[in-house]
């Protein structure tokens, strides 16, 4: 297996300052892990060049994959807006999670910033949404945000691996 291509971010917003990050944390009531802060200081959202991630869907009991369509921008208004997504989903996702990205099917990539899962990255699969248990559609992707970024696979590599697996 070859080394993954370096992760590049496309369509990013202007990087944030430390002061803007502090204000964003105060606004949402969550402290961002260091790796996510570093990402926002450099990129502030955007489309990753390596998009595919794998996870085990424990409800459907199968291995699955999806793609990061977009990491959300931390900006006051506009599309792919971090604040807007978190406001919309705050009563539907666990209180420990923040929405940081979305998939093409509008599932959510979330970052735990509180509680026993602090620092971990999850995919929140909307088809499994359960009002009685907001954690039920959340499947762990990585222990840390930087590990999640490192785990992303470019689409061509993913498709090549899938073809080879079928042989």
UniProtKB/TrEMBL annotation:
Tree of life domain: Bacteria
Start and end residues of each Knr4/Smi1-like domain: 15-151
Pfam families: SMI1_KNR4
Matching InterPro entries: Knr4/Smi1-like_dom, Knr4/Smi1-like_sf
Gene3D superfamilies: SMI1/KNR4-like (3.40.1580.10)
Name of protein: SMI1/KNR4 family protein
Native source species: Sulfidibacter corallicola
């Amino acid at each position: 297996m070859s080394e993954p291509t370096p992760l590049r971010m496309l369509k990013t917003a202007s990087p944030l300052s430390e002061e803007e990050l502090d204000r964003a944390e105060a606004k949402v009531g969550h402290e961002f892990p260091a790796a996510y802060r570093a990402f926002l200081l450099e990129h502030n959202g955007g489309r990753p060049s390596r998009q595919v991630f794998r996870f085990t869907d424990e409800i459907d009991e199968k291995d699955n994959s999806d793609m990061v369509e977009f990491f959300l921008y931390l900006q006051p208004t506009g599309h792919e807006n971090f604040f807007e997504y978190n406001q919309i989903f705050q009563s539907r996702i666990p209180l420990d999670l923040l929405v940081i990205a979305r998939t093409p099917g509008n599932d959510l990539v979330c970052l735990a910033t509180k509680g026993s899962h602090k620092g971990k990255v999850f995919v929140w699969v909307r088809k499994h949404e359960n009002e009685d248990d907001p954690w039920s559609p959340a499947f762990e992707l990585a222990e840390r945000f930087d590990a999640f970024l490192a785990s992303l696979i470019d689409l061509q590599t993913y498709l090549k691996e899938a073809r080879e697996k079928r042989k």
